[in-house]
Automatic annotation (TrEMBL):
Similarity annotation: Belongs to the pyridoxamine 5'-phosphate oxidase family.
Top-level EC class: oxidoreductase
Catalytic activity field: pyridoxine 5'-phosphate + O2 = pyridoxal 5'-phosphate + H2O2; pyridoxamine 5'-phosphate + O2 + H2O = pyridoxal 5'-phosphate + H2O2 + NH4(+)
Descriptive protein name: Pyridoxine/pyridoxamine 5'-phosphate oxidase
Residue ranges occupied by any Pyridoxamine 5'-phosphate oxidase N-terminal domain in the UniProt entry: 30-147
Pathway note: Cofactor metabolism; pyridoxal 5'-phosphate salvage; pyridoxal 5'-phosphate from pyridoxine 5'-phosphate: step 1/1; Cofactor metabolism; pyridoxal 5'-phosphate salvage; pyridoxal 5'-phosphate from pyridoxamine 5'-phosphate: step 1/1
UniProt keyword list: Flavoprotein, FMN, Oxidoreductase, Pyridoxine biosynthesis
Domain Pyridoxine 5'-phosphate oxidase dimerisation C-terminal: 160-205
Annotated PROSITE patterns: PYRIDOX_OXIDASE
Length: 205
């Protein structure tokens, strides 16, 4: 009914993710690494926002934030997350669910140092997610931080770091005509027979 290839159930999910991300890098006009990140309070109240994926390997998926922001506080209290990548140009989605762990200080330092100077200054000046009486207040704080560090090194603030999502489930979704979509989910299972700890199941559209 369609010449779109079906999702390969024999694929390693991280390799398949990398392939789809590579495709998105050539087709998406902006930020192919953009993802929706859903957290929840200890009481189960959800919240979601768009962030950028900043690292991925066989351990998991990494993003960074102010630990005192809303998402930071929610993750410290309830360390589980759901991610969603949606590439409209490709008509594809990937959903990822799992607990989070803090990245190492060395990882956070290295990524912070890779950011532009103004982004590093902004991370220090911003009380992310908290009330701001006037935009001028933030701009004045940014100027003060700029003057403080001048041309010298800008250290990573203690309240700014990253989380690694340790995937327990990765679902791939491919659009097909007439809403007869192709879906497959890889779930972690220490007893799985594929040698990599994954079970894979194709899902109804």
């Amino acid at each position: 009914m369609s010449d779109i290839p079906l999702i390969d159930l024999k694929a390693d999910p991280f390799a398949l993710f990398a392939a789809w991300m590579s495709d998105a890098g050539t087709s998406e006009p902006n930020d192919p690494n953009a993802m929706a990140v859903a957290t929840a309070t200890p009481e189960g109240r959800p919240s979601v926002r768009m962030l950028l994926l900043k690292g991925v390997d066989e351990r998991g998926f990494v993003f960074y934030t102010n630990l005192e922001s809303r998402k930071g506080r929610e993750l410290l209290a309830n360390p589980h997350v759901a991610l969603l990548f949606h590439w409209k140009s490709l008509r594809r989605q990937i959903r990822i669910e799992g607990p989070v762990e803090a990245v190492s200080a060395a990882e956070a330092d290295a990524y912070f140092a890779s950011r532009s100077r103004m982004s590093r200054l902004g991370a220090i000046a911003s009380d992310q997610s908290r009330p701001l009486d006037d935009r001028t207040t933030f701009e004045q704080r940014l100027k003060a931080v700029d003057e403080k560090y001048g041309d010298g090194p800008i250290p990573r603030p203690a309240n700014w770091s990253g989380f690694r999502v340790l995937p327990e489930a990765i679902e791939f979704w491919q659009d097909r005509p007439y809403r007869l979509h192709d879906r497959a989910v890889w779930t972690r299972d220490g007893n799985a027979h594929d040698g990599n700890g994954w079970n894979v199941t194709r899902l109804y559209p």
